[in-house]
Amino acid sequence: MTNPWVVYLLVPMVKIVVILGAITLAAAYLSYFERRLVGFLQIRLGPNRVGWQGVLQPIADALKLFSKEDIIPTRAEKLVYLSGPVLIIVPALVVFSVIPFGPPTNLFGLLPQAIPPYLTDINVSVLFVLGVSSFGIYGIILGGWASNNKFSLMGGLRSAAQLISYEVPMGFAIVAVLLMAGSLSLVSIVEAQRQAHVWYVFPGFVAFFIYFICGVAETNRNPFDLPEAEAELVAGFHTEYSGMKFAFYFLAEYANMVVVSSMATVLFFGGWLRPFPSWGWLGFLDVVPPVVWFLAKVAAFLYCYIWFRGTFPRVRFDQLMALGWKVFLPVSLANLMVIGTLIVLFGGGR
Amino acid sequence: MSTDLHLIQSMPDSEEMEVSFGPQHPATHGVLRVMVRLDGERILDARPIIGYLHRGTEKLFETMYYNGCVPHTDRLDYTTAAANNQAFVGAVEKLMGVTIPPRAAWIRMMLAEMQRLASHIIWLATHALDIGAMSPFFYTFQERETILDLFEEYCGARLTLNAMRVGGQPLDLPEGWTDRLRVFVDQLPDRIAEWERLLTDNRIWKGRTVGVGVISAADAVNWGLTGPPLRGSGVRWDVRKALPYEGYDQVEFDVPIGQNGDTYDRYLVRMEEMRQSLRILRQCLDRQPDGPVMAKVPKVIKPPKGEVYHSVEGPKGELGFYVVSDGSTQPYRLHVRPSSFINLQVLPELVRGHLVADLIAVIGTLDIVLGEIDR
């Protein structure tokens, strides 16, 4: 494993293919689970016809979307209109290059040496995730504008305002974790939680709460799904998109849900660590591979997303803004000060 | 129509925006179209444009025998067919001076109260869906299904009932029907409590409804509002109490009113009305008299020359029929006093200065049906 071609080309390429494939499939199947789960919450069946219990539904949907007529509105700004779906799907997928799914592994001895199951670990992963995922807003606002539809435009504007407002408290909530971990690398943050013998959700409960709510708002999900509030704006920014272009918006939304859930897992719930990593008598839990712990935690967050959708009404635009600026921003700042003070007084951070 | 085109074409040059909500829009309940002038998200003005469902029903009535009009009343407000039947046959009976047998009156009351429940259930489902709460839609429609099943068992139809005739009821209740109704009446309070648990104290729900679409009692009266929109503003007016018809003076029930006249109060009023309807239904089940269900009326109804107005408390407000007879077998003129139409006219007042999302909430809270507005 010293051949540079293998180390620098083959292994990363394989990882890219696997991660991209897995994420796309996961996003597609997330839509299936959402429909089944919401169906369960609403005492109905949900899709159960294509394949056993409807498990082939996402594939059927993809085929349908592929074969749909590709409509470009006559008065749309064509170049911008076409770049919208690209601008949103690319950042949503690129983010996964730094998400640490687990510790280095040799796949039960299949590989000659242990390799990390994530693509790369850069020393500013947190900033990378924040920066790249915010980039997706261009897909929404440009797509909404280029459609030349008033409802799309309003959806795009709402989304832009929403994303910017919630980025700020979300950033402060993450800074609280960075203070505790002393690193911007996601892998180091997980390792720091192992060394601190505690998941950061316990000292940083407020930060976690703010982070997750802001995450829901950022991904435009219920109860903050104003940009695509069907009762008001028909389908918001993607009203005029059809076929695969719509599918890209759709996939990006679900991929972003996975990003927010993964980040919540890594930052606050110890990433791939088992529960209470320092308690020796829980050692039997190590039978479960770390990647499974990671995925289980992500799945729990995704379930919350869907659960919200089955429960809450939608907030109004001004209430959403008020919540972000007047509640979450001061609370996250106060939380940051409290955590900073505690670290100065008692140590614990690095 | 020409003025509308003018509105669309003259795009204001400032930040104002004209948006046409509807007639095909997921939240405007049928084919309502609202021309909205927006400043960002704020509504400067909203103008409902109606007529997309106009079928000329009132003119149609003039060509029909009286009993032949009944199925057409079903199609006015297609969610409250029983109330429409009840108002129409009541008007003709008043004109003829016929008193219907007590059993027929009590059956009509039962059907009307069931219809009120069904209508309020649809209102709750769509109103919650408009505000973004998806699940109540499915929970509520289960119960509505039971009501429709009971309707089907009684008269064969689920939506357009055609269940009443001038002079009484065409059929007596089928065997076992009252028992099944009683089971339903006993279980619905739990369901209503369940729905309320999801919404009534929900912060988001309150944030979306409290203080939205406020109308004072005086304004509500001046605009001619009736039904829950009027009572939500604190005016205790209910045709069932004020001008009792059928057996409503013999049953006990309360008329719930709100205080602030906002969307939340109208929501509470309707939820309480559902409980009161159940109370009436329970009394009907306990005390329904025996006897014939049809008065002695000729096969072909031929009211004397004259005119009459009769109204009932429909689920959406006062629903009245004004019948002019020239002594022949068909009405000379028949006018409907539609509750939805008159309640809708206040929409611009309620939404001016609010946000786009509130427009949807207010349309929902007025509980309009375009079939009745356009006729």
- Amount of beta strand of chain A: under 5%
Radius of gyration of chain A: 21 Å
- Give the number of DSSP strands of chain B: 6
Write the element-wise H/E pattern of chain B from the N-terminal end onward: HEEEHHHHHHHHHHHEEEHHHH
Mean pLDDT over the full residue set of chain B:
86
Biggest chain contact: A-B, 30 and 31 residues
Helix content of chain A: 55-70%
Q: Based on the structure, what is the oligomeric state of the protein chains?
A: heterodimer
Structural class of chain B: alpha+beta
The DSSP helix count of chain B reads: 16
Helix percentage range of chain B: 40-55%
Shape of chain B: globular
- Low-confidence segments of chain B, given as residue ranges, are 1-12
How far apart lie the N and C ends of chain A?
Answer: 35 Å
The overall strand count of chain A is 0
> Which spans of chain A have pLDDT < 50 for at least 5 consecutive residues?
none
Instruction: Indicate the mean pLDDT of chain A.
Output: 83
N/C terminus separation of chain B:
18 Å
- SSE string of chain A, helix = H, strand = E? HHHHHHHHHHHH
Tell me the fraction of residues in β-strands of chain B, as a range.
5-15%
Number of domains of chain A: 1
